[in-house]
Amino acid sequence: MLIKKISVASFDVYPNSTLKPAAVQRIMQQLAREDCDAMGCTYNAMRDINMVFVITKLGMKFFAPIFAYDELTVKTYNNVINGVSWIREFEFYRDGEEVLHATTQWVIVRYDTRRIVRPREFPFPIPEHNLECNTVEIPRSLDAKELPVCDERIVRLSDLDENDHLNNCVYSDITLDILPYDRANDYVSDVRIIFHHEAKLGDALAVGMAEKDGRFVVSAHNTTKDSLCFEADCRFGKI
User: Fold this and answer.
1) CA distances (Å), 168 to each of 65, 72, 95, 161, 172, in order?
2) Chain-centre distance for alpha carbon 236
3) Which of 23, 25, 86, 176 lies 20 to 30 angstroms, CA to CA, from 12?
4) Tens-place pLDDT, residues 191-209
5) Which residues of the chain, if any, have pLDDT below 50?
6) pTM for the predicted model, two decimal places
């Protein structure tokens, strides 16, 4: 388990000073890395045995808007291993009150083949904490397939990470970029993303969007690989 204090930077927010989901993901990615590092499970150590973590699901719930220069305390821990999925939780506190909770699901894959590695084959000791928390439920599907296409996104070098694919933090930017977000009055209150198939450098994503039951749903079809890249949904609140 890792507990760390952070400050929301000016480049982490929208024009109305509310925190971007992509900025939250970058914080989460780094803190998860630091938590694993402390247990000897460094990225380089995993690459040495041809293994990496990749994210499969993300759920993020803001209980209140978070603003530039807010001081937050973040707690992260691997909570449960369920089948091949490692479920990592993130709790964000401001003045002692939880203002954001995120649930992430990960699998370990062989770096060269992307084939899933079962937890019993993983040589590093990452404990399960089994804590009660505000887990964000993520269904098997977000009903976001075959939506009207309204944008195309090409994967560029700046989108890539050490796993040589579209970094998970970019997915929420792709999602929010096509939504009718009121950048004066809205804040993002909920985001869920299901990561289906990775996207690589130069891949073209056809991004579709629709409004359903008070939420916006988004999907991205990788037209280069003819595969579904991701589904997402999002809700807004008023500041």
Assistant:
1) 22, 22, 29, 9, 8
2) 17
3) 86
4) 999 999 999 999 999 999 9
5) none
6) 0.94
